[in-house]
Amino acid sequence: MNRPTALVPRHYVAIGGRGPEDVVADARGRVLTGVQDGRILRLEGLTDPGAAHVEVLTRTGGRPLGLHLLPDDALLVCDAERGLLGVDLTDGTVRVIADSVAGERLRFCSNVVALSDGTVYFTVSSRRYPLEEWIGDLVEHTGTGRLLRLAPGGDEPEVLLEGLQFANGLAPSADETFLVVAETGACRLTRYWLTGPKAGRGEPFVENLPGMPDNLWRGAPDAPIWVSLAGPRVPPLDLLHRGTPDVRRTAARIAVRAPFRPSGTTGVLAVDDQGEIVHHLTRRRSGFRMVTSVCESAGHLILGSLWEPGVAVCEAPSTK
C-alpha cells in the first residue's frame, strides 16, 4: 500500500440539506446527490463557493442513498426506504423499479450501477437493520448484505451474492468483466466475476483497508475506482467481531442507543483493476467528517457525507 498523502481541502459548500450520502458527477461536471429529507439535488459551480448553485430535481418520498446516472437523462436511485427507483431528470418523475426480492421487502438498498448492456446491479447493506440503525449492523457483524441483479426489462431482482458484511459501494471493471463491491463491515473490497471461468463467483479484491469503505465511484473506464472511507479502522470493533453472536448482538443493542459522533480522521482511496492502491489521501482532525462518497469534478475531488449538511471540495492528486 502506498504511503498516504494529505487530503487537502479547498472549501466547504453548504447545500441546504443534511446528509449528501452519495455524490456523482455528470458529463458537465455538475454533481448530483440525495439528502435526508428525500430531495435529489444538482450542484453547480462547486469550485467557486461564491458561485455555487443548488437545484432541486425531485423528491423520492424516502431516503435516497446511492445514485447512478444513465445516458438518457435518467437516474437510478437506491432508496433506503422505497427500494430501487428510477428518476426522469427532465420532469422529476419518480417510479419504483424494484421494492422486493423473493417476496421480501427491500430495505436499506445502498448503491447501484448499470452496465452497457442495460443490466442493473445493486447492493443491500443489511437485512436486519434499517438505515437509522446502521451502526447496529456494523457492530453485530450480521453478514446479511447482498449483491443483486436486475436484467434489462426485468422486474424481479436476482440475488447473486449473500453473506456480505454491510454491502455498500459498487463499481464495474473497465471491461465490465467483474464488479467491485465494498464491504464496509469487513474493511475490504470484493470482486464478483461477471464473465470468464470464474463467472458467478466472489473473491477478495483488496483486503485490510485502512478504513471502512463506503460508496465507490468510477468516472471513466480508464480512470481508477475511487473509494470513500467513512471512518478509520477501530481495533476494539475488530476484536468484537471475533466474539460470539450473543456478545455481538448485545453490543449492537447498546450501540444503536448510544450517541454517535464520527471520527475526525477522513480519507479516500483510488484503486486500479489489478487491485493496486494508486492513491491514498487522508486527513486527521478534519472538520468534514464521515466521508461516505467521493467523485471527481472540474479537476477536484468532491466529498459527500451521511453526517454533514454540505459537501467538501478538495484538491485532486496528480495522475500516476
Question: Would you mind describing this structure in some detail?
Answer:
- By secondary structure, this protein is mainly β.
- The chain has a single domain (5-315), classed as Neuraminidase (6 Propeller).
- It has helices at 134-140, 235-240, 245-257, and strands at 5-6, 9-14, 23-25, 31-34, 39-44, 53-59, 64-70, 74-79, 83-88, 94-98, 100-101, 104-105, 109-114, 120-124, 145-150, 158-164, 167-172, 178-183, 188-193, 202-206, 211-217, 225-232, 266-271, 277-283, 291-297, 300-305, 310-315.
- It has a 5-stranded mixed sheet, with no helix packed on it. A 4-stranded antiparallel sheet has the order 2-27-26-25, with no helix packed on it. A 4-stranded antiparallel sheet has the order 3-4-5-6, with no helix packed on it.
- A hairpin with a 4-residue loop joins strand 18 (178-183) and strand 19 (188-193).
- The protein starts with a strand and ends in a 5-residue tail after the last strand.
- The model has no long low-confidence stretch (mean pLDDT 95).
What's this entry about, in short?
The chain is mostly beta strands and 320 residues long. It has one domain (5-315): TolB, C-terminal domain (Neuraminidase), CATH 2.120.10.
Summarize the SSE layout with pairings.
Elements: E1 5-6, E2 9-14, E3 23-25, E4 31-34, E5 39-44, E6 53-59, E7 64-70, E8 74-79, E9 83-88, E10 94-98, E11 100-101, E12 104-105, E13 109-114, E14 120-124, H1 134-140, E15 145-150, E16 158-164, E17 167-172, E18 178-183, E19 188-193, E20 202-206, E21 211-217, E22 225-232, H2 235-240, H3 245-257, E23 266-271, E24 277-283, E25 291-297, E26 300-305, E27 310-315
Parallel strand pairs: 1-24
Antiparallel strand pairs: 2-27, 3-4, 4-5, 5-6, 7-8, 8-9, 9-10, 11-12, 13-14, 14-15, 15-16, 17-18, 18-19, 19-20, 21-22, 22-23, 23-24, 25-26, 26-27
Helix pairs in contact: 1-3
